[in-house]
Amino acid sequence: MPEGPSIVILREQAEGFVGRTITHASGNSKTVDVDALPGQKIVALRSWGKHFLIQMPDLALRIHLLMFGSYRINERKDAEPRLSLGFDDGEEFNFYTCSVKQLPPDLDAQYDWRSDVMSDEWDAKLALKKLREQPDMLVCDAALDQDIFSGAGNIFKNEVLFRIRVHPLSTVGALPAAKQRELVKEMQAYAFDFLRWKKASVLKQHWLAHTKSICPRCHIPFHKAHLGKTRRRSFFCTSCQQQYPPALKPARSDSKPRSPRTQPAS
């Protein structure tokens, strides 16, 4: 599933369509009135987390690429698009295997841009407040919560928790205040590292934990598990990533089992 930085790249690649008027539209989407699109001018292209947003005077479109979605600018795949937007000079914008939803045009009334880790309006204090309001939440779930960290995905979760040396089964409320602040800070910092590496086609070369088998700090095997309510894959080191609170260990008994008592002979 594309994460926030990949949607920012999509937005940047499509900037040339801003100000253009759609001349024809088609696709197999059942959630969009394609007949209402011709004649609409693209006012803005925006992104919120994993949502790519096409804003027009009378409506807006929300594109979510899901797990296997893709797009093509001025070219097509050998498949029917979910949505195809055409323009008067023959240029086109095509989306495949994705979710398309029609929205009212006022996106500011529908989205809180302060929650987007890549937005100019990102509010770290608000993210910290939301985080602390859910003390029982596991950090592996908190890192994927789009209401707190819009745009973050599973790569973010694994890489950031490794960076800050926190075990994914830690609870938010058990984290020291400094660790809570560090989590918020690094979630945004990693977003822009991700963006820079993705543009340079070297993202995977910088992964320290995600999909890895050996901890680069401790040189011992990573643990791999599907954790939390999200059940997304976690890669973590039980040596350098501390769990808050510590996991309870089974009680150890040093006493030897008693031998059965024998009855005296009659």
UniProtKB/TrEMBL annotation:
<dbReference type="GO" id="GO:0008270">
    <property type="term" value="F:zinc ion binding"/>
</dbReference>
<keyword id="KW-0456">Lyase</keyword>
<keyword id="KW-0540">Nuclease</keyword>
<dbReference type="GO" id="GO:0003906">
    <property type="term" value="F:DNA-(apurinic or apyrimidinic site) endonuclease activity"/>
</dbReference>
<dbReference type="GO" id="GO:0003684">
    <property type="term" value="F:damaged DNA binding"/>
</dbReference>
<dbReference type="InterPro" id="IPR015886">
    <property type="entry name" value="H2TH_FPG"/>
</dbReference>
<dbReference type="InterPro" id="IPR012319">
    <property type="entry name" value="FPG_cat"/>
</dbReference>
<dbReference type="InterPro" id="IPR010979">
    <property type="entry name" value="Ribosomal_uS13-like_H2TH"/>
</dbReference>
<keyword id="KW-0234">DNA repair</keyword>
<keyword id="KW-0378">Hydrolase</keyword>
<keyword id="KW-0511">Multifunctional enzyme</keyword>
<keyword id="KW-0326">Glycosidase</keyword>
<protein>
    <submittedName>
        <fullName>Endonuclease</fullName>
    </submittedName>
</protein>
<feature type="region of interest" description="Disordered">
    <location>
        <begin position="245"/>
        <end position="266"/>
    </location>
</feature>
<keyword id="KW-0238">DNA-binding</keyword>
<keyword id="KW-0255">Endonuclease</keyword>
<dbReference type="GO" id="GO:0008534">
    <property type="term" value="F:oxidized purine nucleobase lesion DNA N-glycosylase activity"/>
</dbReference>
<dbReference type="InterPro" id="IPR035937">
    <property type="entry name" value="FPG_N"/>
</dbReference>
<dbReference type="GO" id="GO:0006284">
    <property type="term" value="P:base-excision repair"/>
</dbReference>
<dbReference type="Pfam" id="PF01149">
    <property type="entry name" value="Fapy_DNA_glyco"/>
</dbReference>
<feature type="domain" description="Formamidopyrimidine-DNA glycosylase catalytic">
    <location>
        <begin position="2"/>
        <end position="94"/>
    </location>
</feature>
<dbReference type="GO" id="GO:0016829">
    <property type="term" value="F:lyase activity"/>
</dbReference>
<comment type="similarity">
    <text>Belongs to the FPG family.</text>
</comment>
<keyword id="KW-0227">DNA damage</keyword>
